[in-house]
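Q: Make up one entry.
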Amino acid sequence: MSTVQAKIDAIMAEAKRKADQLRAKEELIQARKLQSIIKKDRASDTRRKILAGSLILELMDKNPDTKARYMANLDKYLTRADDRELFGLPAKDKSAPGEGQTDAAAAG
């Protein structure tokens, strides 16, 4: 009878191993689907920002008042020297705390 029990135990162990493999495979599939959705959302967000920025730049090129308004907003918003340089803005004085966003807030 112990050989029967041993066979049953072996079959149960194999079934458990296969179930664990299937569960792991399903988790991997779900993780990949989630990553794909996240990647698509990030790409869509980036595309929206590019298109909105393109529109703003075009409006700035066509109207000096619009350009002045957006440049004033950019001057307040941008804190990183390389970002400010893209718009021809002077680097911000780092000794003035509390003005604009911090680099960490701008990155978020």
Observations:
- Residues 99-108 have pLDDT under 50 and may be disordered.
- Residues 22 and 28 are 10 Å apart (CA to CA).
- Helices lie at 2-62, 64-77, 81-86, 103-107.
- The two ends are 66 Å apart (CA to CA).
